[in-house]
Amino acid sequence: MERFDFAAATADREPGAPGLAADLATAALRTALLLEAMLRRPVTGSAGSLRRIRPADVALTGVAAFSIDLGAGPRGVATAPAPFVTGLAEMFMGAPGAAAHREPTPLECNVFASRLNAALDPVVAALPVDALRLAPAAAVAVPATDLVTFELSLSAAEVAGALHLAIPAAHFAGAGIAAAGHDPEPDPALVSALQAVPMRLSVRFGAVRLPGDELERLAVGDVVRLPHPVDQPLVAEVDGQPLFLARPGRRGRRLAVEISDVVEERS
């Protein structure tokens, strides 16, 4: 699979135009100014570097998650630390601005998303997307495709945090951002020799954390609730390397999984 090379891609933009990273850095400052006008207090903003990740790299546990409507094409996913969402939402609703270390309520998630949506126009202008609107949801599904991610860091009074945005890479490819060349082809003799080597394929659910006293009380027949959403595919790994997304099922009298997507093609 081809990898996006953002450093090389900037050369393909119009002469004299700043690079994509510089565009996002400027957009983050402008977003901070718009938020500053809403909150009537100083706000600083910065944008992290762009990088490519797999769907399995998006962690949805321990954070507030939002679906991203990009105007057209596949949706993205945004996550933010719970105290950041709660603290900023309280500030939008007139509270002093002390960071609250608790899970945000549905109302706070809606306020956080709606106010940020009103300030993200500069980011939309920098990215190859038609729109960028956050929408809170009880269960957010990660797109089963390669993603391009970056962080939008914001700080206002005692509230500071980063909104982690993951956008399907297809949006960048459609905008003409060049991809790096293919990986070098391996030695055919080596490939032939390795094809008969057995390898272990494992399929796993997302991990769950339990307090020590709960683990000690577990007994036969107890049910442990997993944080893995029922509509989210499982990750299939070979030697610890995530390669496929799979959905559980049954084939005859045996449990089985159906491969739904390739995380990363390898020779």
Molecular structure report:
It is a single chain. The protein is of the alpha+beta class and 267 residues long. It has 2 domains: 6-174, Chemotaxis protein chec, CATH 3.40.1550.10; 198-219 and 226-262, SpoA-like (Surface presentation of antigens (SPOA)). Helices cover 27% and strands 28% of the residues. The chain contains 8 helices and 11 strands. The strands form 2 sheets. Strands 1, 2, 3, 4, 5, 6 and 7 form a 7-stranded antiparallel sheet that branches. A 4-stranded antiparallel sheet has the order 8-9-10-11, with no helix packed on it. Strand 10 and strand 11 form a beta hairpin. The model is unreliable at 1-18 and 178-183 (pLDDT under 50).
Brief sketch in words of this structure:
The chain is an alpha+beta fold and 267 residues long.
Secondary structure layout:
Layout (H helix, E strand, L loop, with lengths): L5 H4 L10 H20 L3 E5 L3 E3 L9 E7 L6 E6 H11 L13 H12 L3 H6 L6 E4 L10 E10 L2 E10 L1 H5 L13 H7 L6 E4 L7 H6 L16 E5 L2 E11 L2 E9 L5
Antiparallel strand pairs: 1-6, 2-6, 3-4, 3-5, 4-7, 6-7, 8-9, 9-10, 10-11
Distinctive features:
Chemotaxis protein chec; disordered N terminus; Surface presentation of antigens (SPOA); alpha+beta; 11 strands; seven-stranded antiparallel beta sheet; 267 residues; four-stranded antiparallel beta sheet; 27% helix; globular
What is the CATH-assigned architecture of the largest domain? Answer: 3-Layer(aba) Sandwich
Query: Class of the largest domain in CATH?
Result: Alpha Beta
Helical residue percent?
A: 25-40%
The number of helical runs is 8
Largest sheet: 7 strands, antiparallel
Rg computed from alpha carbons, rounded to a whole number of angstroms: 22 Å
In N-to-C order, the SSE pattern is HHEEEEHHHEEEHHEHEEE
Number of domains: 2
- Percent in strands: 25-35%
Query: What is the fold named in CATH at topology level of the largest domain?
Result: Chemotaxis protein chec
**β-strand number:** 11
**Separation of termini?**
9 Å
State the low-pLDDT regions, or none: 1-18, 178-183
